[in-house]
Specification:
By secondary structure, the chain is of the alpha+beta class. Helices cover 58% and strands 8% of the residues. The protein has a four-stranded mixed beta sheet. Helix 1 links the parallel strand 1 and strand 2.
């Protein structure tokens, strides 16, 4: 059965591949799994029909037969477990890959996402600069720790896994801010991931949605 995912009708990231449906698209491409996309406006995301799929009125959701999932990390984990392409066969390595999935979403993403929102929503506040400095310090602490672990390795733990997929999508949020300047290993790490055929195909699909929406507006 071909799964259906939901995505923004017109993504606020302007086609940069930062919306969370990108994670799911990428995982599906890595798995070689065809999928369909149902595009939603911001208004439709808050409608009761969509809240039956995602109680928080967000994207993405994942529908496959009787199964409905929300939260991008949970969806990526489901895809990885179902298709056996993003998790190692070795039991211990598999558990470590899942640990890195949680690390990306629970340790790295919170300060990065908070920083991204502050730049958009709080830039004009009198206390913005002080708060921004605190957020940047928190991010640099995590980036240094991640760099120390990665070292000269290509991926976080052996071969590319769902842990790398999620970690890269988190790091991409600060790629354009300059916060990654000086972290050569992390920039190279992102570059290797973005060079993967599955990533390029997923990015092209998400960008195409934005381009079509822009032509209509």
């Amino acid at each position: 059965m071909i799964p259906t995912i939901t995505a923004f009708e017109k993504s606020p990231d302007r086609g940069k591949g930062l919306a969370r449906d990108m994670r799911v698209r990428w995982a599906l491409e890595e798995a070689g799994q065809d999928y369909e996309t149902r595009l939603l406006s911001f208004k439709a995301m808050k409608d009761p029909a969509h809240r039956l799929l995602n109680p928080f009125g967000q994207i993405p959701t994942y529908e496959e037969g009787d199964l409905v999932l929300f939260e991008s990390g949970a969806i990526v984990l489901h895809i990885a477990e179902r298709h056996k392409t993003l998790l190692p066969a070795d039991e211990n390595a598999r558990s470590r890959a899942i640990a890195w999935m949680f690390a990306a979403l629970n340790t790295l993403e919170p300060p990065i996402f908070e920083y991204s929102l502050a730049r958009i929503l709080e830039h004009g506040e009198t206390w913005y600069e002080a708060r921004n400095a605190i957020l940047e310090e928190r991010i640099h602490k995590r980036l240094k720790e991640l760099t120390a672990h990665l070292g000269n390795a290509d991926w976080l733990d052996g071969d590319f896994t769902a842990g790398d997929l999620l970690m890269v999508t988190v790091l991409q949020r600060v790629k354009a801010t300059g916060l990654l300047d000086g972290y050569a290993q992390l920039l190279a790490y992102i570059g290797r991931a973005e060079a993967r055929p599955a990533y390029r195909k997923a990015f092209k699909a998400q960008l195409a949605v934005f381009e079509v929406a822009s032509q209509k507006s």
